Amino acid sequence: MIAAIIAAAGSGERFGAAIPKALIQLGDRTLIEHAVSAISSVADQIIVTAPSGYEKEIQTLVGDGITVVTGGATRSESVRIGLSKVSADAEYVLIHDAARALASPDLAKRVVAALKSGDVAVIPGLAQTDTVKIVDASGIVTSTPDRAAMRRVQTPQGFTYKLISQAHAQSGEATDDAALVESLGKPVRVIEGEERAIKITTPADMATALQFLGKSTNFKSGVGVDAHHFEAGRQLWLAGLLWPDQDGVEGHSDGDVAAHAICDALFAASGLGDLGSNFGTNKPEYKGASGTTLLKETLALVEKSGYAISHVSVQVIGNRPKIGSRRAEAIASLSTALGGAEVALLATTTDGMGLTGEGKGIAAIASALIYSK
């Protein structure tokens, strides 16, 4: 099992914002939503450390399947609070900063791959290309270290659960978690980082981050919604996965509300009609079609019209099934059907209200961001 802690308790003071940094908008989403999206493709459990007083707002943004806790006065204290919530079944822990919102899912996957290959601590880093000077208190240069051996360290950083727990048990303070591991004399592997995983601290950083958001400034967005009644005796397909021992839903196809909502969001963004006009009951070839089949067909139509997918987010609404245990698997299924596109998957309930709250059905709402090729 892989757990992830996202440190998001920073005040945003250096940014000059009146709200916590994690809630600052970057493109179509907040920094914390970007960070969760990148890490959710590999993590079975996600814990977010939030600024005091903003826990409910962040919980609403990231969904019920993610644990939100109040962070501490320092980054290291916040991480220790997050570690106290990590499942005892966890083998590895990723620690990420909401400020590095544009770190890609691929970077997280490479960190995990290195851990699984036998390393106990893995951090991404980039070569130092600028000459670095050491100066004294009066500003006079005292030395010029060799930059060839230097790396600019990034997150997510990955560790075995046992090691990072041991490192933080000393209650030390450090600017990154690897430094605490180093103090134990344990080896820390540095893998190649990525330029887009910049730390967003100032408005100038935000301007740089915006350049990484897409290959074009010609973006279009769309929203899609789908809902179905449960129907006893049918298989439940959701987010491209079969959920055994669960009642399915009625529908012309397999009733995968997550896939259908994504399709409609993509159709809305590209102006290509909707789910009904493209795959409706007047087209018998789609009777019983799987959600992944419809996603693939939708992707082909979107690309044919000259667009590519930047990001897709879908939130499942219902009392069951519980998404958390299969979140990474579901994200992988949806992403594969969409040609490897970045996908975020959230889940929530409606507190007993309406079709989903009364347990009569399941629904989903999705958003899609596409850009002109």
TrEMBL record:
Any single Pfam family the record assigns to this protein: YgbB
Domain of life: Bacteria
UniProt-annotated site: Positions MEP for the nucleophilic attack, residues: 147, 199
CDD domains: CDP-ME_synthetase, MECDP_synthase
Record pathway: Isoprenoid biosynthesis; isopentenyl diphosphate biosynthesis via DXP pathway; isopentenyl diphosphate from 1-deoxy-D-xylulose 5-phosphate: step 2/6; Isoprenoid biosynthesis; isopentenyl diphosphate biosynthesis via DXP pathway; isopentenyl diphosphate from 1-deoxy-D-xylulose 5-phosphate: step 4/6
Keyword field contains Membrane: no
Cofactor(s) recorded in Swiss-Prot or TrEMBL: a divalent metal cation
Chain intervals for the UniProt region annotation (2-C-methyl-D-erythritol 4-phosphate cytidylyltransferase): 1-219
Site feature (Transition state stabilizer) residues: 14, 21, 252, 349
Catalysed reaction, written as an equation: 2-C-methyl-D-erythritol 4-phosphate + CTP + H(+) = 4-CDP-2-C-methyl-D-erythritol + diphosphate; 4-CDP-2-C-methyl-D-erythritol 2-phosphate = 2-C-methyl-D-erythritol 2,4-cyclic diphosphate + CMP
PROSITE patterns linked to this entry: ISPD (PS01295), ISPF (PS01350)
Segments forming a coiled coil: none
Residues involved in a divalent metal cation binding: 226, 228, 260
Alphabetical list of PANTHER family matching this protein: 2-C-METHYL-D-ERYTHRITOL 4-PHOSPHATE CYTIDYLYLTRANSFERASE, CHLOROPLASTIC
Job of this protein: Bifunctional enzyme that catalyzes the formation of 4-diphosphocytidyl-2-C-methyl-D-erythritol from CTP and 2-C-methyl-D-erythritol 4-phosphate (MEP) (IspD), and catalyzes the conversion of 4-diphosphocytidyl-2-C-methyl-D-erythritol 2-phosphate (CDP-ME2P) to 2-C-methyl-D-erythritol 2,4-cyclodiphosphate (ME-CPP) with a corresponding release of cytidine 5-monophosphate (CMP) (IspF).
Protein name stated in the entry: Bifunctional enzyme IspD/IspF
Organism: Candidatus Planktophila lacus
Gene: ispDF
